[in-house]
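Figure-free illustration: sequence to structure, shown twice.
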Amino acid sequence: QEDTGLQLQPLLEGQNYGAAAAKGTQCPSVSRNSPAVKNGLVVAVLCFGNLINFMDWFLVPGILMDIQKYFRLSDGRTGLLQTVFTMCYMLAAPIFGYLGDHYNRKVILGAGIFFWSGVTLGSSFITESYYRIFVLSRGLVGIGTASYSTIAPTIIADLFEEGKRTTVLSIFYIFIPVGSGCGYMLAAGMAKITGDWHWAFRVTPCMGSLVLVLLFLLVPHRIQRRTEKHRVLSISGTIRGAAEKSGVHRAGKTTWCQDVGSLAKNCSFIWSSLGLTAMAFVTGALGMWVPLFLYRAQVVQGIVPPCLQESCNSSNSLIFGGITIGTGILGVIAGAEAARRLRKIHNKADPLICATSMFISALCLYTALMVAQTNILSTFIFFAFGELFLSVNWAVVTDILLYVVTPRRQSTAISLQILVSHLLGDSGSPYLIGLISNAVQARSTPSFQQSFRSLQCSFAICAFVGVLGGGFFLLTSLYIMEDRKEAER
């Protein structure tokens, strides 16, 4: 366990890592560039890990047609794959959040990477008779990846103060859409090259092993918490004794229930988490079903023939993966830059940016669904704009959390946000879309036209949820100034 009382003395002597180093609190003998280089290496490793994390997340959607045909699945059972993954991910997140606030974060990250890499590799050898084992393996991978998504952002929060933190978080969150897009492209590419979709699950474990090695070589074993640094800076040189150490130790002893109770009173945290939940619902549904929806639209238009051969055409996954990468990078950068500029003229800029982007995204997604049967190019374009405006929010929402929640509750807050956003968002949306599609198909004679119509109708719910998410961010703007001042106090 990371004992804050024991770490206080090294911090006073200037031997700390992380945020204190980033602010220049260091020994005179240490090079001025050394802390910046160390912090940069840590961020590079964390970004690379985030890339692999989300590549693995989107392997299944990238080869969805192959998996659906291999296990002979309906739309509902197909959507269950991503739902089980996300359910396990979200249930594990609060556990890792608590562990990240009280134990060594580097060890937890390493254990999580090792676990999900091993399970992903094992799942590549599952045959068509063992669909339930394949579903179980995806759930176990979700547990492993929860450790990374929960803890990595808080390490960045420890390393950088608010001005630089937004920029670094933007870089970190760029790798969510980049990793997602690379997951589509890796899965589709490996299936095309080898003729066997199982090979898609044998690449990311090798990359995960590399992340594990870099993590233990480059990331410090202990990274000082910003809360500890702030306490130290407020201590007079004559009263650095047992009384202050005892105060620090007591501050670290808050229970999980006490932390949750405090967060439940934070209106900005609650409403922004619900806005993120709406984002997660939409992105989960899009990430799972868009390549298959595009394929069915092309079949209806006569652009491509129905998939009857052993390995299906994965060109839509490749294109959608490229779109996800491009719109993700552009969206995250645009969101961070808009937030940086607009904060100077408006104190509530962050939630207003999120609300506006959600409304525009919902309109674009609805338009994409409406034109899908007649113009596939327009469908691609409107889906791209829908993803672009969704991506605007990733770094901004996280930054909202980091300045309305006190630092020593941030891992718990992030884990709770992950739990809520996935429980009510993307854990159920892929399965819900599949169930609605099944229900619509059951009303008439099966045909390619009907399979397209069923998915089109079920997808329409995403536009409604997007508008709802915009409303949640508007409510966030009503409370954000008060909650930020409270966190600063």
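We now fold a second protein in the same way, so the two outputs can be compared directly.
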Amino acid sequence: MESANLLLRRIVRSSVLPFAAQHGMKKYLFPFSRTLSLSLCLKQDKLCEPSEKLDLDEWKKVMKSGLQEEVSEKASEPKDLSSLAAARETLEMWRLAGRAVPENISEEQLKAFMECPSKSAKKKYLKYLHLKELHKKNDKRKMDEKRERRLEAQDQASKTDETKKSPFVCLWSSTMDKAYNWRAAQSMIFGQPLVFDMSYEKEMSAREVTNTVRQIVLSESCNRRSVDPFHIHFCNFKDDSLYHREFIKNYREAWDKLLITVTDQCYTEIFPKDKLIYLTADSPKVMKTFDHNKIYIIGSMVDKSIKTGVSLARAKRLGLETAALPLEKYLLWSTGAKNLTLDQMMHILLTLKDTADWKKALEFVPKRKYCGFVNKPVKELKKTLDLINTLKLGKRQEEVENQFAKNYPKKYKRN
């Protein structure tokens, strides 16, 4: 038995191992030969009969089958690689032909492309990858542009901060703020009151209340910078209301330092009724001149969301005098509603208070709403109106002429 074992080892070393080393199979054959020899040594008791021989033919068949599996595995890899290379060449040809093909495609995407059942499916898959790649490029380009804009804004902000930090500019701004605050403090003692009616919160949505508060903030800023500011009163103002929360958002810590009067009382409880005039576009009475002894009331609301006549009904219910701005008297009105924003009303009232000139005051009305001022004879106005109707309105000429005649019944007569 020992001689047979030695003979087997010599055969393995002399013939099989060089062949395995040449084909890269040494690591697979060494364990197999070791197990074969060990198994023979361990089974000496069972194989002690001299008549038993080793079946080398079966062992050779096992070795040949292992070699064939190894060769087949190595042969399959080049086939896969060749198929991927062929697919990439196909994509390159399609790209040169002008089809929608992505520039960069991964191996997983390429394998998914090869697994598509038909040519149309392959085209759709490549188009999907192409569009996806374009979206990524656009997103990256937008991010780069946004980053550049942010850097430019930071540079400009740093430059402006440097200019603001200059001692002269800081001294000038602080001095002007003190002057404006001094005027507002004087107006609280000697100024003419102007009331903002804050009782329309329930009739507006949250967004409309936000817009109203923004307009009031602009009005307060304009009033504070004027030569002779009003003493602003916020009447019917309730704490923790939507108005209150919006004002805190806009003013923050400066809300408690505003030089205005805020009260939850009604204006009829603070001022005598004979001095109050409610300004509303629905009033039948037209305001002719600005009265410095009267107290004007402005409804704090967005007129687009309010039904017609709400502020007029409120004024009549309280027994107050009403007035409307003479927009039709001084302006050749063309299109749009005759409602103005709160900051426009503030500009108009401040200009009337300082100059008593309606033409200068009504310049704050948006020019898109009127064609010009009524400062010509009625015949020339009629010619201008006819020209406007011919150029813009066409078939609506008669309708506009009737409206013009209704506005000017004494001066205008139809032929």
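Summary for the second example: Residues 23-53, 73-77 have pLDDT under 50 and may be disordered.
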